[in-house]
Sequence to fold (1536 residues):
Amino acid sequence: MGELNIGLIGAGLIGRTHSIAYRMVKGFFTEKTKEVSLKVLAEENEEAARNGAANLGFDEWTADYRELLARKDIRLVIVAVPNYKHKEIVLEAIKHGKHVLCEKPLAMNAPDAKQIFDAAEKAGITHGIGFNYRKAPAVLLIKRWVDNGMFGDIVSYRSSFIQDWGIDENGPLSWRFQKKLAGSGSLGDLGSHAIDMARFLIGEVSEVVGTVSTHVHKRPISTGGLGHKQDTGTAEYGKVDVDDICDVLMEFENGAQGGMVSSRLAPGRKNHFEFEVYGTKAGVFFDWERPNEVLFSSVDMPGDQSGFNRILVGGFQHPYGENLWPIPGMGIGFAEPFAVQLFEMIDAVLNERKASPGFYDGWKVNQVLDAIESSVKKRAWCKV
Amino acid sequence: MGELNIGLIGAGLIGRTHSIAYRMVKGFFTEKTKEVSLKVLAEENEEAARNGAANLGFDEWTADYRELLARKDIRLVIVAVPNYKHKEIVLEAIKHGKHVLCEKPLAMNAPDAKQIFDAAEKAGITHGIGFNYRKAPAVLLIKRWVDNGMFGDIVSYRSSFIQDWGIDENGPLSWRFQKKLAGSGSLGDLGSHAIDMARFLIGEVSEVVGTVSTHVHKRPISTGGLGHKQDTGTAEYGKVDVDDICDVLMEFENGAQGGMVSSRLAPGRKNHFEFEVYGTKAGVFFDWERPNEVLFSSVDMPGDQSGFNRILVGGFQHPYGENLWPIPGMGIGFAEPFAVQLFEMIDAVLNERKASPGFYDGWKVNQVLDAIESSVKKRAWCKV
Amino acid sequence: MGELNIGLIGAGLIGRTHSIAYRMVKGFFTEKTKEVSLKVLAEENEEAARNGAANLGFDEWTADYRELLARKDIRLVIVAVPNYKHKEIVLEAIKHGKHVLCEKPLAMNAPDAKQIFDAAEKAGITHGIGFNYRKAPAVLLIKRWVDNGMFGDIVSYRSSFIQDWGIDENGPLSWRFQKKLAGSGSLGDLGSHAIDMARFLIGEVSEVVGTVSTHVHKRPISTGGLGHKQDTGTAEYGKVDVDDICDVLMEFENGAQGGMVSSRLAPGRKNHFEFEVYGTKAGVFFDWERPNEVLFSSVDMPGDQSGFNRILVGGFQHPYGENLWPIPGMGIGFAEPFAVQLFEMIDAVLNERKASPGFYDGWKVNQVLDAIESSVKKRAWCKV
Amino acid sequence: MGELNIGLIGAGLIGRTHSIAYRMVKGFFTEKTKEVSLKVLAEENEEAARNGAANLGFDEWTADYRELLARKDIRLVIVAVPNYKHKEIVLEAIKHGKHVLCEKPLAMNAPDAKQIFDAAEKAGITHGIGFNYRKAPAVLLIKRWVDNGMFGDIVSYRSSFIQDWGIDENGPLSWRFQKKLAGSGSLGDLGSHAIDMARFLIGEVSEVVGTVSTHVHKRPISTGGLGHKQDTGTAEYGKVDVDDICDVLMEFENGAQGGMVSSRLAPGRKNHFEFEVYGTKAGVFFDWERPNEVLFSSVDMPGDQSGFNRILVGGFQHPYGENLWPIPGMGIGFAEPFAVQLFEMIDAVLNERKASPGFYDGWKVNQVLDAIESSVKKRAWCKV
Fold:
C-alpha cells in the first residue's frame, strides 16, 4: 500500500479507456488502491488538453507532457499517444525516474524498443506495456492451464485480429494510416496483440514470413482527432502507406507453428480478436467478441463427450473472479482487462516489483514486427 | 448540472455493483456528473459497515440507515438490501424527501409496492428501480426498434432467466431461500427481470398462470453474508420455503402471448437471461451471456438471405455508443447497464424529471408476481 | 432376415422424405435390408399418383389406397397423408393385417387414436409413428444418458418448435390451416414433436395448461398441393380456424415441470426445434438447426470448467455411429433420422417385435394435445 | 436422360459414401436418373471385395479393377482408392473410354495429374474430381454471390481444415500416414479441400509458402483396412513420414491474399472445415460442422444493423433447394454434397458435357500442393 499519483499522456480513445480503467481499479481493487490517484492529463495543444480534461474528468492538465514528467508528485505515467511519439516521451519519463505504462507497440522498430527497454532497466523503473487482452480473465485462465501443463506439448497457435472500419474509403487519413506516425498498419495496430498473445501462451517466435496488401490507397486528410470517426469538409486526399491486411506464418522456438492475421478490411468484423491453441492434450479457442467464453477441449474427456466446452468466466475459481464479478457469466467488458492491467502495474510499483508484460515484451514484439516487415520486403522467411 | 450527493444502503454483491457503477458513471458521463459523489454507506452492523466501507471505498459509513437518511447533504439514496427491508427504508427515505433508486423487486407484494409508489408520487421525489438489464445497450437498441415499429404487431414474448448455483445442496440458507425475507425464490429474484423486460418491450401483462417447484428442501443455516458463497462449520439445516423453479404463461393486453421461466436448478447455466420477441415483421433474440449481441431477423430481408443477423452493439449508431465504447464489439460487461441506470437516475434528479423505470414499474411487476403466485395457489389463470 | 415389401400412401413432402429415407436405409443398413423394397405408391388421384411415382421413383402406383392395402405382397405400409385421413387408412390397413408406420399426429383426437391403437394391438401388427426427431443420433445420445442416470432427477423440460412460413399472409390455405383436416395448427403439426420428445426423455405428462392465438385469419384458397409453397391466380380467401401460436405449461408424473411452444409466426426461425432438459446432475440443450451438436453440462465437471460442452455426434461411440457416419461431425441431415426410424420399423417387422415409438405413443401424444385444447377452451389446467 | 451403368472402385469409407450418395441421387433427382445404376464394385482382394459388396449392397463384384474397366456395360467409373493408385487406375479407365469421377487429390504430384488430365482430354471423356465440399448448398450459395459481384473485389481468403484423430499415438499406421501411399499427410488429405475451395471462390493461387510439422513419428503397423479405426494386437511400429500439421500463406492472381491450415492434431476438432472470404463489399464465413449455415455480412446493411447474418440454407431460393430439402434448415448432412456431385457428374455424362470440378481442377490443386511442398523444402515462397 502507499500513495501513488499517476499522470496520463494522451486523451484519445485509449487514453480515455485508461482513465475509465483507473475508476474501475478503484471499484474492483478498492482497499489496495486507496491512496492511488490519476492526477494530471497531458494532451498536445491547449484546447485539446482542456477538452480532454473535461471529457476525462481531470482537474489538472497541461499541453506540454514535459511539464507533467517534471512534476515530483507523479510516480507513474501512462503513455497513450500515437506510436511515433512513444520513444521520446518514454525516454524522457525514464530520465525523470517515472514508472511507465506505455501503449503498444512499444516503439517504431526493435532497436528503438531495445533502447527504451535498456534505459528503463538501467534506471530501475517499473515498466509495463498495454497488451490489454492478456489481462482478460478468459486469457488468464487459459494461461494458467498452459502453465499447469493441461495442453501437453503445444503444437499450434493461430490468431486473427480483424476489423472492418477500413473498408470505408471516406474514412479519414488518421495517424493509423501513415507509416511515419504508426510504423505499420493493421500489423502494428492489431497484429501486435496477436503476436504478444502468441508469446504469452506459446513462447518465443523464432521465424516468420508474411505478406501484406493495401487496397484503399488514399484517404481524405483529416483535420480532426486520432479516432476512427470520419470528419467532413475536406476535399484533399493523402496517401495510405501502411498495410490494410497482413497474413503471417510463425514458427516457435519450442517447435510449435502457426500464424497470425490482421486486417481492417474484413466486412462484418468489428473487434474480432480470436486465437486457438492446440497441444497434445488439449485445445482452446477464444474470441474477444465473446469475452466471457473459453472454449476448451481435453483429450481426457470421456470418448462419447469429446467436444469444446464453453466455460463462462467469473467467480472465485477463475483469475480475478473475486475482484471483478463473483458469479460466472455476469459479464466482462472492455474496461475490465484494462483495469486488471492498471492494477497490476500499480501493485508492481507499490511493491517495487517488475510488471508483466514489460518493455522486454514490448521489445520482443517489436522484433517480431520487424522480422515480419523484413520478410515481406525480402519475400523470405526471417529469423526474429 | 449540479451538486448531488448519494448515499448507498447495502454493501452486498449488488450494493458493491452500484458503487462500481458509480465509478463508471464518472468515467462514461464525466462532464455531466462532475459534482456528483457517492458519499455515505449504510450497512446493518458496525463491523459489516466498516468492512463494507473499506471494500467499497467509502470514507463515511453508518450502521444505522436512518442516520444516512437524516443527513441534509444526501439527495439520492440507493437501496440495495434484501427485499423485505425495501418498504421500511424507502418510505423513510421518501419521508426525508430523498430521491430513491431501489433494487428489485420493489416490495414483498403489490399492495406494499403501491403504497411505496403512492408515497413517492405524493412527495414528488424522483424514483427509480433497479431493472438493470433494461439498460444494456443491446436491449435499448431492441426497444428503439420496437418503438419504431420495426417488429410490426408483436405476437410473442418468451424469456428464460436460469442459473445453476441452487443445485448445490450445501449452499447456505441465505435470505434468498426464505419467504419472509425474499418474498419468493427464483421468481422474484430472476423472474422479476423477465417480467420487467416483458413490460418494457411488449406492454402490460393481462393474465398469467404459473407452476413452481422446490427440489432442495433444506439448506445449512448460514451465519455469513448475503452472497451466494457457501460457508462451513454449521451442522444445522433450515427449511427452504421458496420456489427453485417457476414456469409461467403470460398474455398481454395487446394480444401477444408467451411465457417466462426462472430457475436456480439449471446445471451449466450461470447467468443465462435470454428472451425472444416475434412480431409480424421481425424477430429478435438476446442472451445476457453474450451481452454484445443482438440477433435480429426482418421479413424485409431478401428472400435468399433470411436469417438472424448477429449485430454487435457499440459505436455512435447504437444507444449510448458514444458514451460507453465507440467501436462495436469493444465489449459491454456487467457494470455498463448499471452505469447507464445510475446515470439516468442522476440525470433525472438533476433535471427534476421522472426516471424510467420507476416505482410505477416496480408496482406493476409486483402485481404480476402476485398474480403468478395466486395462479400457483389457485391452479388457475389469474388477472394481473 | 427376410423379404419385405413396403407400400407408401402419400406423395407429399413427407411421403417423399420417406422414399428418400428408404434409399438411405439401403445405404446405411445394407445387409440387414437386402430383401426389403419400397414397391407401390398410392396417391389420391390418377394424375397426382402418376406424377408422384415419377418424382419418387416408383414403378407401381395407384390412385386408390385400398388397392394398395389389398395386395398380398405388401407387408408394411407407410401412411403420410393429412391427419384427418389417418384413422380411415390405418384401420383399413390393420384390417388387412399390414404393419403400419403412420405419420404424426396419429389421429384427430385421443379417442380415435385409442381406437387405432386397440385395433393394432388386437390384430397383433407392428406399428410405428413418425416422430422422426426422436431418431436423431443427438437425441438418441441424450436418451442414453437419461437412461443411464447421468441427469439425476430430471426437474425441467422446455421445448420450442417454431417456424416463420406462416407470417406470409399470401401463403395458401393448405390443409394445415383447416381444423377439419389438420385437427389443430402449429400445435399438432410442430407441438406434437415437442410433446413426444417430452414423453421420450422425461416421462408421462400429467397436467397442462395452454394458450393459443391466430393472427392471420384468412388465406387464399389453394388449388394446389399439400406443401408450403404459394400458388397464385386465386382471389378467393378462406378462413384459418387453427392456432398460429401455442404456448403450454406442462407438469410431469415424475415431478418435473416445464413447457412447450409451437409457432408458425416467428420471423427468422426456419425449422427451429430446440429443447432443454435439466436434472439434479446435468443439463442438456439441443436444436435441430444444429443437428450434429449436443450441448451438455454435468455437475461433475471440474469447478473451473463448468459449462456447456458442445459434442459433435458421429463415430462408433455414439448411437448408430457405425451405420451412419463413422467420424464425429461428418454431418447428419434431415434424411438420417427418417432412415433410422424406417430401419427400426423394418427390423421390428422382420423380427416380429414391437416398434418404438408406436401407436401407444401416438395415442398418449393425442391425449396431451386434447388436454391442451381443453385447457385453452376452459382456461384451466387439464389432466391428461 | 439415358442409361448409365456405374462401377465403383474402392470400398473404404469414401467408396461407401459414394454408394450412399448414389442412393440419394435416386431419391433427390429421381426422374433424371431413372436409368442410372451403380452396378459393379471392385476392391483389392476377394475377401475384401465380397465383404464390400455385402456392406455396400452390390450384386456384382470383382477383386480386379481391370475386369470392371473392361466391361462394356460400364460407362462411368468412380475411383475411391488410396492416392497412389489413382494414376494407374484412371489412365486404364480412360484407355477403356470410361468417364471417371476420381477422388482427391487427383495424383501424387502435379506432373502425374497433368498426364491424367491430358489423357482424359485427349480421349474426350467426362471427368470429375471429388471435391465434395464445393457441392454443399451453402458453398454453392456463396459461389453464386461471388459470381454476382456481391463481394466486390475479394481481398482475403482463409481456411482451416482440422481434425483431432491423429492425436492418438496408438492410431494405426494407415496409408494416410505414409508418403509413398498418400503423397503427403494432412496437406493432401484435408488441405486439398481448402485449396480447391480457394480456387473455386477466389481464383488461381499464384504463390505459396508453407511450414509443416510431424509430432507423432511412429505408429503401430496396421493389418486392417484403410479407415481411422484402431486395431490391436500388433507390437510393431512403423515410421510416419508425412505432415501432421501444415500452415500455408497464399497469394492469388487477382491480388487477394490469405492462407490455409490443415491438421490432424487439433484436440476437440472433429471435421472442422471452415473458411472465410472478405471483399470490398461483403464478408462470409462457413464451417462444415454447421453445414446449414452461411454467415454473411454486407457493407450495404443499415449502419445500425451491420453484422453477420446467419442464413439457413434450403428451399427454392437456394441452390438445389427444390431437389434436396424444400424448407430452409431441414438439414444437410454428409451425403447431400456427395449426391449433388454425383448427380452433376451423371448429368454431364448423359448430356456429353464437361463436369466441374474436373481433372483440370485436380491438376491445379496438385500444382498448389507441389508448390507448398517445395516451399517447405526450400524455406521460400514458391510460384505455383
